[in-house]
Design brief:
The complex is a heterodimer of chains A (68) and B (896). Chain A is mainly alpha-helical. Chain A is built from two helices and two strands. A two-stranded antiparallel ribbon of chain A has the order 1-2. Chain B is mainly alpha-helical. Chain B contains 33 helices and nine strands. The chains are: A mainly alpha (68), B mainly alpha (896).
């Protein structure tokens, strides 16, 4: 289990979800009928989940018990 | 909807819960656990979403738009750390049989009772209102769905829905939460029931959401575009009314909460079956959170569109279906809300009851009463646990009745979050930083809680009129800087965020400062080590190094039997015996690892501090005090240090040996020199003495010598005596120069004068030898500070040498010049020259003596050595420039 990607993930998404990056999307406009910020937040969130899924499932392929 | 229908549905649902839990327990008894699955684990984590999520988020969204997401993004961001941070916590908890946050803190800081009690107490204070909130949510939802507002008249307990609700939940909790005295055992029924409820609430909310979005409206875009067309709704499409600092701090707050809330600790850590479940949970849980929050905003907008104002926005989830006359959906929503609320109440109460019993009640009990060895305390402990649960529910019920309508649905949750966040430094930092001390944790938590209370609880008391309002408006004693909502002048922040910031700021500050400044006990040090390293591998903790003494197997088993029952105790010991292939006899001295094993098992029952206490009573031993512990550590440390010292010393020894050898060499050569010196000197001395003796004897014996002959002999005597005297003087002088005892007789010296004198003196000798002696002076009168006689001696010595080695027909020239700041005197001859290899050697004391190829010269062989010494004493240098067959130039400098 790569410990570093996990913590990098965490930091990266923390940044993506905060000022100033997130504030760029905080405008009351609609994109295909969906509010921009709504789409951005849930989109990033979903992306994050997918990344976690990939990382976790990939390492579960390795039989060795992951180190701390 | 009819009141009785509601009761029926509720009762049916509760029965379902009981059934599900019972089913899980039965399966567990057959060793076919249902909670082994990672999906069940992930779903159980969703107990994080309470009635607050279910109802309150919608209310929050009407005020601040998408800001409600912050509370769910925090746990999402923590999810990747499940496999690092959380796993570490789980390992530590497993290896030390820790069953609650209070125990965790207590164990980390040396099995400290008071710290554990403090954490337990504060958890209760911070969380009970949150439990009340859930009860209120359910009763409110009942009121709404039956369209019967609660009677505002006199209060009748038996007509109070909340009362029956509390009763029903207490029954469930007691039945499934206190089945075993060992709190570290899994609560299979509870976990499975909670997981089921997570499914129910998600399904209910999603169905409601879908219905509202696609049934009531024409899809997401319809709702959103409608919202966009309204001024006051447009801002809700993003994050509004909130600063980004608040957004970030709320995320941080929820990150603390997901790790430190008692219910989360219970399901995440205590109830964790396999570490591998963390892997799935890491992405499943965020996915759940996403799914349960995605409809919140659409529902909020739909509600505002339907009902106009945003009053009671919390209840939109329920009122919208009712508004449309869809009773089935309303019932489903109601059940979903019921699930959300009840799962929280169940888990939280169980978690808190463990803390109360293990960290508050039992320590008091164990320390006050004398423990009767033969009595079985299993039932007592279970009773304490169960009564804690009852008391907790009673408190929650009482609080709800007392505060009732003054409770805003939303902020109580965050107030609880902020309360448990006070444990963050002690727990999270304490896990990694070995320097964290008990006093630091204590200081931090106390200060944090004080500020929490001051900035959040106190003002609400003022709001209900228990305290004067001026406290909030103007600050205590009119000190504006201490206004509870605007501490130190921090304006423009939501009260919770404001409280979170200040409380954690001072908490952390004191935690670090006091830890740095305080000394830790032996226990603390040991525990800090264990916590930092227990996480490395999945093995049990090592034997505590500071037990000494002995105990019999029978005593240990008896102790365990007191708390677990004879059968269980026996099973545990039998298992141990099998594992280690031992035979355990009651009278036998307990093997090493049995003691910590017993303590661990006890910890699961009575908590860390209680277990330690019990162990001390049975194992007639003392904990090694600080001194002894330090001694032991020092010994092992000393070995390391000694080793280093040893290596360093041997390196030094080598160096010293080498130096010694060198000195030895030098000494030997010096010795040799000394010998030579003595030899030469005695030889030199003897020669003239011999001559003198011989001459004197002749003159003495033969008194008919011719007067001329007599004169000749006598003059030889005189000459040799002089020579002798001269030699002795030289030797003495040199010795004085060498030892530095010679004091220069300083006065201004005119170099030219000295040179002229010397030249004049040797003119005769030069003429006799047929060598021309010239001087080469400039008009400048070179002056130096020095000893005239000695300097004269140097010139004499050089000139006489030059004359000695210059054959007839040659010349000797003395010149005086200045080079830069020095006066340079050159004595040049046209003699046979000196080979370059000898340029240094000729200044050695006994060079001439060694090199007997030269004719036996006059003088002592010390002349050049003495000259060099004199020149050096004056701060100058003396050297020779020469090549074989090309004469020699002796040069010396003097400072001008």
């Amino acid at each position: 289990m790569k410990r570093v990607p996990l913590q990098v993930c965490c930091c990266l998404f923390f940044l993506l979800l905060n000022y100033p990056l997130a504030s760029l999307f905080n405008k009351p406009v609609l994109v295909a009928g969906i509010p921009l910020m709504y789409a951005y937040l849930f989109g990033i969130w979903l992306l994050f989940i997918v990344v976690l899924f990939v990382v976790m499932e990939r390492s579960s392929k390795n039989e060795a018990e992951p180190y701390e | 909807m009819n009141k009785w229908w509601v009761f029926l549905i509720s009762a049916a649902y509760l029965l379902l819960l009981f059934g599900v839990a019972w089913f899980a327990e039965k399966r567990a008894a057959k060793k076919r656990s249902v909670i082994n699955s990672p999906y069940v684990y992930a779903l159980s984590l969703a107990v994080y979403c309470t009635a607050w999520t279910y109802y309150g988020s919608v209310g929050r969204a009407t005020a601040k738009g998408l800001e409600y997401l912050a509370i769910y993004l925090g746990p999402t961001l923590v999810a990747p750390l499940f496999f690092t941070l959380l796993r570490r916590i789980i390992r530590i908890a497993r290896s030390q049989r820790i069953t609650s946050i209070a125990d965790f803190v207590s164990a980390r800081y040396g099995h400290n009772v008071s710290l554990g009690a403090l954490v337990a107490l504060l958890s209760v204070v911070g969380v009970v209102p949150y439990i009340s909130l859930q009860l209120k949510a359910i009763t409110t939802s009942i009121e709404i769905i039956t369209r019967q507002p609660s009677s505002m008249g006199h209060f009748n307990l038996f007509q109070d829905t909340a009362f029956y609700l509390a009763l029903a939940l207490t029954a469930f909790i007691v039945l499934f939460g206190a089945r075993s005295v060992d709190a570290s055992e899994r609560h299979e029924g509870m976990v499975f029931a909670v997981a089921t409820e997570s499914v129910v609430k998600l399904v209910a909310l999603s169905v409601a959401g879908l219905f509202i979005v696609y049934g009531l409206h024409d899809g997401f875009s319809d709702i959103f575009s409608r919202a966009a067309s309204f001024e006051h709704l447009r801002s809700q499409l993003g994050i509004s009314q909130v600063s980004w600092m608040e957004w970030m701090l709320t995320i941080l707050l929820s990150m603390c909460a997901i790790l430190l809330l008692p219910r989360q600790f219970q399901v995440q850590v205590v109830e964790n079956v396999r570490e591998r479940n963390l892997q799935r949970a890491a992405w499943l849980f965020p996915l759940y959170l996403l799914a349960i929050t995605i409809f919140v905003l659409p529902i909020s907008i739909a509600g505002q569109l339907a009902f106009g104002s945003s009053a009671n926005a919390d209840t939109y989830v329920l009122t919208l279906p009712m508004h449309l006359g869809n009773n089935l959906l309303a019932a489903l929503v109601y059940i979903g809300g019921f699930s959300a609320a009840s799962s929280m109440v169940i888990v939280e109460t169980i978690a808190l009851s463990t803390m109360i019993s293990n960290n508050l009640v039992l320590p008091l009990f164990l320390q006050s009463a004398s423990i009767n060895r033969d009595e079985n305390y299993t039932r007592l402990i279970l009773r304490i646990r169960r009564w804690s649960m009852v008391v907790l529910m009673a408190l929650a019920y009482g609080y709800e009745k007392l505060v009732g309508d003054h409770m805003p649905l939303v902020s109580i949750g965050l107030v609880s979050f902020t309360a448990v966040a006070q444990f963050a430094p002690a727990v999270l930092i304490g896990m990694y930083w070995k320097g964290a001390s008990r006093k630091g944790a204590l200081a931090g938590i106390i200060v944090g809680f004080a500020i929490w209370f001051y900035t959040l609880i106190l003002p609400s008391l003022a709001e209900v009129g228990l305290l004067p309002n001026t406290l909030v408006q103007e600050g205590p004693w009119h000190l504006a800087l201490l206004k509870p909502y605007h501490l130190f002048g921090m304006e423009g922040f939501d009260p919770v965020v404001h409280a979170f910031f200040w409380s954690l700021f001072f908490n952390l500050l004191l935690f670090v400062l006091v830890s740095l400044g305080s000394r830790r006990s032996a226990q603390e040090l040991y525990q800090a080590e264990l916590f930092a390293h227990a996480a490395r591998s999945n093995t049990q903790a090592q034997r505590p190094v500071y037990w000494k003494g002995s105990v019999t197997v029978g005593d240990l088993e008896g102790l365990l039997a007191n708390f677990l029952g004879t059968q269980k105790a026996h099973n545990i010991f039998a298992h141990f015996a099998r594992q280690h292939q031992l035979r355990l006899e009651p009278a036998q001295q307990a093997p090493e690892s049995l003691v910590p094993l017993t303590e661990r098992v006890l910890t699961g029952v009575v908590g860390a501090a209680g277990a330690r206490f019990m162990m001390k009573s049975v194992v007639a031993m003392e904990e090694v005090g600080m001194n002894e512990m330090l001694n032991m550590l020092r010994e092992s440390q000393q070995l390391v240090v000694l080793n280093k010292e040893l290596r360093k010393k041997s390196a030094e020894l080598e160096k010293a040996t080498r130096q010694l050898q060198q000195v030895n060499e030098r000494l030997r050569s010096t010795d040799q020199l000394k010998d030579e010196f003595l030899y030469t000197v005695t030889h030199e001395l003897r020669t003239p003495i011999t001559s003198i003796r011989a001459m004197a004897e002749i003159v003495h014996d033969y008194d008919d010598l011719a007067p001329a002959e007599k004169q000749q002999y006598l003059s030889v005597i005189i000459r040799e005596s002089e020579r002798l005297s001269h030699l002795i003087t030289q030797v003495l002088r040199l010795e004085r120069f060498e030892s530095g005892r010679y004091k220069l007789n300083l006065s201004p010296v005119h170099i030219n004068e000295v040179v002229r004198e010397a030249a004049g003196f040797y003119q005769l000798v030069a003429k006799e030898q047929g060598v021309s002696l010239n001087i080469d002076l400039t008009d400048t009168d070179f002056m130096t500070q020095g000893d005239r006689d000695l300097l004269r001696q140097v010139v004499d010595n050089l000139v006489s040498n030059a004359l000695k080695f210059t054959p007839a027909g040659g010349s000797v020239r003395i010149s005086v010049r200045n080079d830069l700041d020095d006066i340079t005197i050159r004595v040049q001859d046209t003699g046979k020259g000196i080979a370059p290899g000898l340029h240094q050697l000729i200044f050695d004391k006994f060079f001439q003596a060694r090199n007997q190829t030269l004719n036996k010269p006059e003088g002592s062989g010390l002349g050049l050595a003495i000259s060099k010494k004199i020149v050096e004493l004056h701060g100058g240098r003396l050297w020779v420039e020469s090549a074989e067959g090309q004469g020699a130039t002796f040069v010396f400098t003097l400072p001008g």
